[in-house]
């Protein structure tokens, strides 16, 4: 994950919105109505603050983001809570370390991995 990005992470119980430390002020304004991360006084941001309210309703991509999260919710029997995580926030980093796995592909793309698996692995089924 890059510091200049915003990511949605989903683990059935929570839908996390991870905000990098170097996110463009445009996105901070759109999501949180602030210009810098320093302008956020409370890191416990409620779903209603992000997606609802008079200022948020006119922001099309915010509503599309909410639709994506709602579709994740519909696909599970559990209604996951939305939480915002911030890069370099100690509580957020603990959550990330608990749920994230290190990418062990060393930069290989999917086709390279697939080729390596099919050329070096045993067949998945054996004849009787």
Question: How are the elements arranged and paired?
Answer:
Blueprint: E1 6-10, E2 14-19, H1 25-32, H2 47-51, H3 60-74, E3 81-86, H4 90-99, H5 110-120
Parallel strand pairs: 2-3
Antiparallel strand pairs: 1-2
Short description:
This protein is α+β, with helices and mostly antiparallel strands. The chain has five helices and three strands. The radius of gyration is 19 Å and the shape is globular.
Walk me through what this model shows.
This protein has helices at 25-32, 47-51, 60-74, 90-99, 110-120; strands spanning 6-10, 14-19, 81-86. With 128 residues, it is an alpha+beta fold. It has a single domain, classed as Severin. Strands 1-2-3 form a three-stranded mixed sheet, covered by helices on one side. The chain starts with 5 loop residues before the first strand and ends in an 8-residue tail after the last helix. Mean pLDDT is 76; it is low at 123-128.
